[in-house]
Amino acid sequence: MKSQHVTINSRKYDGKINRSWQARLIEQKGSHLLFVGEFDRAVAHQDLGIIRRGTISYEYYWLDRWFNIFRFHEPNGDFRNFYCNINMPPTFKNGVLDYIDLDIDVIISIQSKFIVLDRKEYEENLRFYNYPDSVQITVAKTLAKLKEMFTVGEYPFDCKLIEI
Length: 164
Hints:
By secondary structure, the chain is of the alpha+beta class. The protein is 19% helix and 47% strand.
């Protein structure tokens, strides 16, 4: 498959774009999409520290799942960490992937620690956007699913990458 450049939009619950970036689609199998991107500048992240320019991001999305998973590698290729977003299932059309971010994130460090982030932001936005009960229940189930996937080494936590 020839890689395709796409725009990825992370949106708030009201549909407004919160973040947007470019990546290359390198694999699509059924509902699964795998993208790769590269940080074009250093980014200071409150939980991840400095993400250096040239850091590679493998981005795993499923059109029928309530999460995405980023696998970060340092510019020299060394594994850095996983970063997971809890989000509503994305849409992908006309070279644009859109998803609604539901605030809660997970970091899985190089020491294999599963750390849940942004619970306060989630609670604030739950009230602000009035997340329905069904969304709240799905968020809790999705966190448990991610932890299970990580614990048993399910893809992409099995550390296998395709050739790009």
